[in-house]
Amino acid sequence: MSPEGARGVVQAALMRRTARRDLTLDFEPAIATRMDLLIDGARFFPRLLEDIEAAERDIHILIFGFKAGEIGDHFRDALVTKVAAGVDVRVITEAAFSQPGLGSRAFYGSLVDGGVQVVANQGAFLDLDGLLGQRRIDWRLDDLGHFDHRKVVVVDGRIGYVGGPGIEDHYATGTHDLMLRLEGPIVAQLQAVFLLSWRFQGGPLDAAAGLDRFFPSIADATGTGTRMQILHNNPGEGHLPIKAAFQTAVDGATDRLFVISPYLSDHGILRGLVAAARRGVTVRVIVPTDPHSLPASGSVRHWFQGLHDAGVDLREHPEMAHAKVVLSDDTVLVGTANLDALSLRQNWEMQLRIEDDAVADLFARELFDRDVTIATPAVMPAGWRARAVNAVMSALAPLL
Fold first, then answer.
1. CA 1, CA 185: separation in Å to the nearest integer?
2. Strands 175-176 and 320-321
3. Neighbours of 261 (CB within 10 A)
4. How far apart are CA 112 and CA 133, in angstroms?
5. 311 Cβ neighbours under 8 A, 6+ residues apart
6. pLDDT tens digits along 173-218
7. Measuring CA to CA, which residue among 397, 255, 274, 254 is closest to residue 339?
8. Helical (H) or strand (E) element with 360
9. Is 257 exposed, middle or buried (CB count within 10 Å of its CB: 0-12, 13-18, 19+)?
10. Which whole-number Å values give the CA distances from 193 to 10, 60, 183, in the listed order?
């Protein structure tokens, strides 16, 4: 799908009931006329709110975690205010995590009461489609087992965000993450992903009203800006380009290979990191000291000694290092996918592949070089109990 063809793909989907296969999408590379790397909540939350508050037509949010709290309430109030001003606001969330019908019922009730339209992917339990308050059973059960882990925001069809954080308090303090703010033709592709996902979850869209408002004319950007490609996992259809891209990046590195991920347990990736270090590539790996998950902690720590012995600069970040970035030579993969089985094979995910030496240097300088000064050399597991637990977690990693 090209940026120019994005509108047509959505238009065709409006003529029928959207099926999961409609989200099996291969994207042509596209231009971002502007790209801002926003690291940590102190930078990306204010910028995102600024764009939301300036919206004139539509705000589209596809988010895994959106919950009550200081940050969540602030965003809720901003969205409700925009609805009152005549802006349409649509939100897609993951029911199994954000719990709009359970623990977050009151929070989502306040969104709906304020005019925000909300649908939810139902990765666990019974598949329900349609707007909150009107959901009905979808007997296709095509959500089941596939959690929507994407984080994408599109404002007025002109500004897009892709990254790792949710709209939750801990991303403001204590969690280390990032978002890319994008302008230019690539935003049309992000918009198509949102609208197709919205329809797939039973969200209403008036075909008669047309799609021009969602796909505004954007000046020709040929030869200008940053060229990048969207990689989009549709796990229920076996469409998993992100996993292949990660493995290719790791296996093909010749000079530098930098990785930051909260959940690093895929055996192929880990073997690739060891092999890269042994062939002389400068390899840096940053994981959180405490990933808040025994499987995540144990599975990567089972590989600590092997990574260390191969010459990997292996470090533990004192915060929850939640960014998901692989930098291989002059290629950057950044987005929503972790390096574990859930992200690579089970979840809806989106990653951007950027092959650009200036962008790679930007990530190396602003993210990895700074994190190396904060993160400390990894502590090798000690004691037979810890090593045994780690070995079990690693063995189970392909299933988790």
1. 12
2. parallel
3. 28
4. 8
5. 277, 278, 283
6. 999 999 999 999 999 999 999 999 999 999 999 877 789 999 998 8
7. 397
8. helix 357-363
9. buried
10. 9, 11, 16
